[in-house]
Amino acid sequence: MRDTLATCICVALITWSAAAAGAASRSAPERVATAGTRSVIAALRPAIHQWPIPFGATRRREMAAYSLRHYGEDTYALAGPKVIVEHFTGTATAGEAYNTFAPDVPDAELHELPNTCAHFLVERDGRIDQLVPLTLRCRHTVGLNWTAIGIENVGSSDREILADRAQMQASLTLTRWLRCTYAITLTNVIGHNESLSSPYHRERVASLRHQTHSDWNSADMHIYRTQLARLRCPAGSFGRVARAATQHDPGGI
Fold it and tell me: What's the pTM?
């Protein structure tokens, strides 16, 4: 009986070892491919000019308090963003937009702290400015600031920006790099005017649950996303997200 039991244990150990070795041999190429994909995505990063607005300890505390009021999360950190929101500045120059965001004063519309901001500005000549690190939350879209990257395109209308070749190329290149980096599907690249239809929209303040802006409506974002779709992410960028998405929407990646 003991000999039979020992034999069974040996067979089981051999079988388990073989299965483990097989799993390791399958997972090793996947790890290499993932590292290779990250390298390819990193190469997509456009030239970005660092132009930070002040975002010190006080503004971070205010952002955490804002997040607690609006999302029930006591944090200023942006982790694993799921949405990219396109805006236009409503100004003639990037400097005017910067000067709107830089002072930490209550914003003119909702009168809250911290002041509004965006992570990036895209200028008319195609220059890309980063105002805020991607590890910090910015107030740019009510209901989505907890999980959204904000991009401000300098200009006064969607169509004005769509018609500017240099600016559009820069905006699309930046957005592509961000969505490939964070595995953000095409349908989650939205205009500010589309914020209420986002599956990630949430807002604890009842009076703000239907608040949005007019910039980048669905018709104009359809044009934007159509052009963005031509700049596909490298194979493997989305992993399981990509495989699940393509089952329902082959163009969604």
Answer: 0.83
